[in-house]
Each structure stands twice: as C-alpha cells, then as structure tokens.
Amino acid sequence: MRQDHLISATQLSRADIEAVLDRAAEIDADPAAWGDAHGRAVLGLCFFEPSTRTKMSFDTAIKRLGGTTTDMGSVDSSSVKKGESLADTVRVVEGYADALVLRHPSEGAAKMAAEFVDVPVINAGDGAGQHPSQTLLDLYTIRENVGLDDLSIGIMGDLKYGRTVHSLAEALTNFDVRQHFISPESLRLPRGVRFDLHQSGAQVREHTELEGVLPDLDVLYVTRIQRERFPDENEYEKVAGEYQIDTKTLEAAADDLAVMHPLPRVDEIDPAVDGTDHATYFEQAHNGVPVRMALLDYLLSEEVDQ
Amino acid sequence: MRQDHLISATQLSRADIEAVLDRAAEIDADPAAWGDAHGRAVLGLCFFEPSTRTKMSFDTAIKRLGGTTTDMGSVDSSSVKKGESLADTVRVVEGYADALVLRHPSEGAAKMAAEFVDVPVINAGDGAGQHPSQTLLDLYTIRENVGLDDLSIGIMGDLKYGRTVHSLAEALTNFDVRQHFISPESLRLPRGVRFDLHQSGAQVREHTELEGVLPDLDVLYVTRIQRERFPDENEYEKVAGEYQIDTKTLEAAADDLAVMHPLPRVDEIDPAVDGTDHATYFEQAHNGVPVRMALLDYLLSEEVDQ
Amino acid sequence: MRQDHLISATQLSRADIEAVLDRAAEIDADPAAWGDAHGRAVLGLCFFEPSTRTKMSFDTAIKRLGGTTTDMGSVDSSSVKKGESLADTVRVVEGYADALVLRHPSEGAAKMAAEFVDVPVINAGDGAGQHPSQTLLDLYTIRENVGLDDLSIGIMGDLKYGRTVHSLAEALTNFDVRQHFISPESLRLPRGVRFDLHQSGAQVREHTELEGVLPDLDVLYVTRIQRERFPDENEYEKVAGEYQIDTKTLEAAADDLAVMHPLPRVDEIDPAVDGTDHATYFEQAHNGVPVRMALLDYLLSEEVDQ
Exposed e or buried b for every residue in B111-140, given b needs 16+ CB within 10 A? Predict the structure, then answer.
C-alpha cells in the first residue's frame, strides 16, 4: 500500500485491496510459514471502546507473525480518566510500539491520531465513521466465497449508524458490484455516504423490504441494530426485531447465497441458520486473523523500509 | 487423556489423572526443558467472572511452554455486553486460538461451549459446578506432600457452593482415600454430589465439627465461605467466621498434616499458620503452573494428532 | 545494584543510578541486541491503581528483552475484590513470575510486599510515597539533555501529593544539583521530604512563583495537580489552573531549557509548547522503555546469580 496508516476504506485502491487479500490468501494457505515474519514487533492496542473480535484478532494476528502486543487497557484503568488528551496518549504509546490500533467513540479520531505519530495507525472504528480492517476481512470473505466481480450484495439492517457498512460500501465501488441497501426509513444510509457512492459511479439501490431483492443476491450482509448508537430508546425499540433472518426467509434465496454478519448478533439471524450452507459469519470472523496478519505485514514492512 | 475437552473431574480416570500428574512432576523437575514445547500456540482466555490465580496460572503456563494467550477481557469490555450468546462468543474465539479456557457463572456453560467448538475447551469454573484443573493441582499437591493412597482428608467450610470441593471429592474416589466433610448443616455437600460419591463407593463421612476428626487427618482442605454464592446476606453472616483455623486449632493435628486452601482466603486460616510446616496453600497455588502446563501439553498434543 | 528489590529512590546510590543509566544508554544505542537477553522471563504486573505509561512501558520493556508478562488485571476482576490481603496476592503471584511490578494506593505497600516474597519487587507507585523507576527515567532524560552535574532544576506544581517529585528530589541529592521547588503554599513539599533533603545536604530553595527563578533553570519539571489526591474538591479548584506553562511564559527561559512532565498532563503545559525545542516530555515518556529494560536486566540478572 502507498499509505503509512489505514484510516478509511476510501483510501484503498483496487490494487491496494487485492495486494492485502492476496497476501492473506498466502498466509491462510500456510500460516506456520509466517511465524517469524515480524518477530519482536510490538503492536500497541488503544481501545477506547469495548471490543472482542477486533481486538482479539489483531492480538492474535501480530502474535502469529512472531510479535506481541502492549495494551492500554480499558479507559477506566488508564490515564484517559485523569483527563489526558487523545493526542497525548497516542504520542506516548508510539514510544512503546511499532504500530498502533485505535478504536475511539469520536468520528475522525484515528485521522487526528495519525497526524501526531510517526508509527502506522490502524483505525479500528471511530464512532459512526470507518472500520477499514473489518472491510478488508469482509472483502476477503466475499472473494473466497462468491468472488468480487459481477456480484449482487444486499446490505441490511442499521445502515445509518453501522460503520462497517459505510466502509464496506465505499470499498465495493472498486469492483463490479450491484449494492442493494435494505433498511427502515429511519436507518437509511447517511446522505454523505450515499453522495460518495454516487460520485464513485456505484450501482446502488435502496429498499425497505428484503423480499423483492433476495432472490437476486449472491451475498446478504446483515448488521446488528446497535442500541448504543441510538440517542433515543424509543427509536431503537421501534426498529429492533425487524429485518430478522431465519431459515424460512432464506427459502427464497439462491442456493449459494452467503449470509454474512460482522457480529456480534443479537437476534438478527436465527441460530437455525448456523447449520445451513448459507452461514458464512463465523468463517468471516475467523478471517480476521489472516487478513489482519496481511495488513500488519504490509504496514510493518513499510515501516522497516523507511 | 482420551478426551478432547476437560469439562468435569468426573471424566478423569485414575490413569488420566496419573498421566497429567506424572507429566507435571517432569515439568517441575526441569521447567526450562519445556520452553519450546508448544511454541506459537495461542490459548484463548474467556473469563466471564473475576479470576486471579486461575487466569494468571494458565497465562503463565502456556507462556512457559513457548506459547501465548489472547484474552477476551472483562465482560464489560466485550461483545457480551452487546447481547452476544456464549455459543457465538466461543465460536468466534475458536478461530483465534488453539484451545479455550472458560470461566462462566452458569453451571453447564463449559459443557455447552464444548459442543459448539472443535478446539479443546478447559472448564475453569462454571458457577457452583466444576473446576477440574483446580482439582488436578490439588491432587498434585496432595501427592507431592503425603501421597494419594491410604489417605485421610478433611474438607471443610463451604461444601454447598464450593465448586473446587465438588471436583476434588469426585476425583478422590479414584484413590484409596477416606473423605471427611466438615461444615455447618446449611452448607453440607449437595445431595447430587453425595449421591455420586456413594455410587462410586467412596469412603465418606460428614461432620459438623472439626475437633473429633482432626487428629486422624493427613490433609485438611479449607475453603472460603463465598459471600457471592449466597442468595441471602443473613445466611452468610450466620456461618461466616465459623470453621476458622489458627495455630491453637492445629495443636491437636498430626505433625505432618498439610493444610490446603484453594485461595483466596479471607479469615478462614489465621496468618500465623503461614509460618508453620502445615501451611501448604501457597505451594498449592504455585503448583497451578506445572500442572496446567502438563494439562495444556496433553490437550494441545492431542490436537496436533487429529 | 546491591538490592534485590527497588522500593524507594532513597535506596539508590550514585553508583547504582549511574549503572542503570549507563545500561539504558547501551540499550538505547542498539535495542535489537537485547532481544534475547531475558528470553522466557515472566514479569508479574500487579496494578491496584490505574496506569497507562508505567504499566505499558514495563510491559514493553520485558517483551523487548525477550520475556513476557502476566497481568493481575484490574482490582475489580481479581481476588482482591473477594477480600484477599496484599500479602497473600503477592505470595501467589510470585509463584508465576520472575519479578513483580506493584502499584498500590497505600504508602508502604511495596516495602511490605517485598518482605513476603523472594522474587524482586519493583515499586511502581505506592500512594503519595515513591515511584523510583519513574525517577530513573527522569534522571536518564535529564542526563541525556543537559547533564546531571552543575544543574539547576525547577520542580513545579503539586509537590505535596506528587510521588514522582519526592522520588526525584531525593535521587538528585546524589548529584551536584540546585533544586528549586515552586508551588502554592498549600502544595509545598511535605515536611518529611524537606527534612530528608536537608539531611542529605541538598541545595534546596522554595518559591511560590516561577518568574524569578525561571531564567536560571536548565530543567523545568512540571507536575499535574492530581485531583484524585485531594481530600477536598474546593482545595483542588483553588489551585487548579495555576502554575501553567505556555510559550509566553517560556520567553524568559534559557534557550536550552528542557521542560519535563511525568504525564499525563491536563492543562499544566499548553500544547503550543509541544512544537518548541523545550518540550522534552514525550521523549521522557519514551525513555521509560530503555530505562526499565536496564532496570529489569539488573534485577533479573541478580536473580539468576542467587
């Protein structure tokens, strides 16, 4: 990649994405061969919000490359509670680590952090903004299952607050993909994302119901209605429980439809779907390791070259 | 061991137990020789309840075998707070780790988890249920100090809620051991455990006072009255403070009586006992490392063979 | 060093300090050469209070020496919550680790812990008491920037509650240093520390304003007014915001004045100072790694010799 940091999916060209995905496939084919690729590298984990899979898969990824992590810990047990600014925190941690992974509740936090430090910064989620390493593993999962060309994808659920959706939709504009967005009116894709997609010439359609479009889809990407993103509990209750998938729903789907979900799910996908060939979400979660290994390999190798 | 998972002490035969204990003794004799035994292995730590010694000793054990850990963190900083099911969490984490250690407040949680994942699951405590790796280190400590045959052991304190007691009592039925259970009436061993012991032909007696039986004991295993297991604070207050051990109590004991405790203790054993030859509880805690190294060695080696 | 533990800066002779600082300089010059110096060493992290930089830099330090850590986690997720004493906790953890790093809210905690365990204990802050590894990195930063002889240093801010100040002031008595203490009357250096300094023949002066002394200083060491140390919120409000540094303040300073701060800062130093040559606080934070590597190297090497 041409960049030193990974802040947004929008910074990634098709060639960038394919380079990471090809490297991830190499790693996936023979993980043990990469066990010393970045021995002694220290990855700084700065998570200002809860995380399980993103944090654990970055943690595992650097360790499977021979490196290790140093973890800021939760906000409650860190200097942040003493009133330290984000700019100060990341400038301190860059002294300990060879690269930083940052999750923060404020949109733009990773971009700001990257302006203050010299080591690579990876945005692991900034509020309702971006989550580009999630996008890379989503793209990898799509490519491994149904390919990234001549693809029809449905993206459903919380399109307003779901940062994984925003990153994915923008990255997909690099490929020959028809994007169908399915959500209640109140959770439509934000105007800014829609504008960017149209500017990129993306093939986009919006729907309020899954039924009409389901049979045409190669991938159905379901997202959680994130309670914590709602300023208003009533608004949450109104849409929670809609847009759920079960085996009955999927009777109308193509046999090889891949159902994806960034996880965690609450009740968007019925557990009965787990046993079907459609279920691709656990494989998707597991792809976090080879894809993040590939990403770290790129960013840390660049670092060495400087 | 014949098993892929370690869920309950009841699944362990005498041969299984002796295999792990022999391996632990080998490791204890020359720990440095095991420093690369499982290089690059990643152990997933899923602790849904607080833990110090179990978590730290598993963490240390895998690291002293050349491996490393990836830690789910506290429940508050994980996806669990977003409403994710245990089955989903463990299926995600199995993609990152070569084996899982699980502690959970619900009895049966580890058994359920093991049904969902392919990597070995170690039960590190499921509510008032089982805690079998604690049992292995308890057995190792007993064997190293007084041997496991022709043994008289007193198990005292909270026998109703103490999961370490349930696991230990059942494992001891594999050996020639007389088990004396000493507790207030309200904290007797649960009916189900008593039934299992009698079915196994165990030599069991119950007491409400230590005095009569103390002189005959080779081991006195003291447990904490666990406040957090009591539904009712009054019930707790009534028994707290009873069944305490001090140097005066021990005057009636055999010279080589080993006093054990799974720790943490509050006031069940007076600190003055620490300086006596009876005190075996810190050695017991330290044995967590070689015993868990041995256990991990067995489970991870089986994994490789598959 | 002659000691097995590092509890207080007062235990360090000039020769001790110079030995660690020289070793840190060696490490700084070629960190990669130390990557296997303490392979397999396990450092136990026992932080009973929040920490970012101390914990992360010890964590990074042992890892850059080839070792690893095992972390007690926060007090809320540990046995401490179950009522375990500090003496018990450290005696358990010493069974897992080759050395312990301890932070605790009670003054004297590390000294007490060291009496109970055989592995080296490093005091990483005990209430308003000592924080000697911070002192070593402070001294290293001063030596690298302006030298430790014929030095004028101003130490400003919260001199009453700031443990880094107490440790630093006492260590500086080993060198030819003029110490100027600048604080409001209510935050003066405690009587005990002043007494110790006078006993050591230190060259000490106290001021309530920076203005008069600033032009003479080689180093200005600014500390945070720590809200959490104040028993009374009104008292805090009265002094908060005083003793702030900005670029205008520094116009009267020598060109090569080094401004230091143990961090985190809240508003004691204006961010505009970050871009000036005076700003030495991020370098100071980063020096935590080589200095703690040097410290660990000494303590762990002694351990091996025993």
Answer: bbbbebbebbbbbbbbbbbbbbbbbbbbbb
Contact A50 B79 (CB under 8 A): yes
Distance CA A224, CA C173 (A): 61
Total H helices, total E strands in chain C: 10, 9
The per-residue DSSP string of A83-133 comes to T--HHHHHHHHTTT-SEEEEEESSTTHHHHHHHH-SS-EEEEEETTS--HH
For B183-251, where are the E strands, in sequence order?
203-207, 219-222
Q: Which of B291, B227, B306, B304 is nearest to B19 (CA)?
A: B291
For chain A, positions 179-218, list CB contacts with chain B under 8 A: none
Residue B56 is nearest to which of C70, C76, C81, comparing CB atoms? C70
Going from N- to C-terminal start, the domains of chain C cover: 9-130+287-305, 132-285
Residues of A in contact with B78 (CB under 8 A): 50-52
Q: Which residues of A touch C271 (CB under 8 A)?
A: 85, 87
What would be the CATH architecture of the domain defined by B132-285? Answer: 3-Layer(aba) Sandwich (3.40)
For residue C199, the surrounding DSSP H or E stretch is helix C191-199
Q: Is C191 annotated as a binding residue?
A: no
Which of C19, C28, C44 has the alpha carbon at shortest distance from C288? C28
**Going residue by residue through chain B (306 aa), what tens digit of pLDDT does each one get?**
546 899 998 899 999 999 999 999 999 999 999 999 999 899 999 999 988 899 999 999 999 999 999 999 887 766 666 778 999 999 999 999 999 999 999 999 999 999 999 999 999 999 878 899 999 999 999 999 999 999 999 999 989 888 889 889 999 999 999 999 999 888 899 999 999 999 999 999 999 999 999 999 999 999 987 777 677 788 777 776 668 899 999 999 999 999 999 999 988 999 999 999 999 999 999 999 999 999 999 999 965 443
Residue with tokens 């990824």: A61
Query: Within a 13 Å sphere around the CA of B271, how many CA atoms are in the beta-carbon half?
Result: 8
Rounded to 5 degrees, what angle do the CA atoms C277, C281, C285 make?
A: 135
d(CA B210, CA B216) in angstroms, rounded, equals 11
The reply to whether B132-285 shares the fold of B9-130+287-305 is: yes
Interface of C with A in 62-91 (CB under 8 A): 63-64, 68, 74
C106 has a chain B CB within 8 A of its CB: no
- From residue A146, alpha-carbon distances to A178, A250, C104, C181 in Å are 14, 17, 55, 69
Under a CB-based contact definition with an 8 Å cutoff, are residues C242 and C182 in contact?
no
CA distance A290 to A272: 28
Q: Any CB–CB contact under 8 A between A284 and chain C?
A: no
Q: Which residue has the tokens 């809240």?
A: C266
| Contact present, B62 and B90 (Cβ < 8 Å) | no
Contacts of B192 (CB under 8 A, 6+ apart): none
Instruction: Tell me whether residue A233 is exposed, middle or buried, using C-beta atoms within 10 angstroms of its C-beta: 0 to 12, 13 to 18, 19 or more.
Output: exposed
What architecture is the A9-130+287-305 domain classified under in CATH?
3-Layer(aba) Sandwich (3.40)
- Contacts C88 to B, Cβ<8 Å: 263-265
Task: Compute the distance between CA of residue B108 and CA of residue A143 in angstroms, rounded to an integer.
Answer: 39
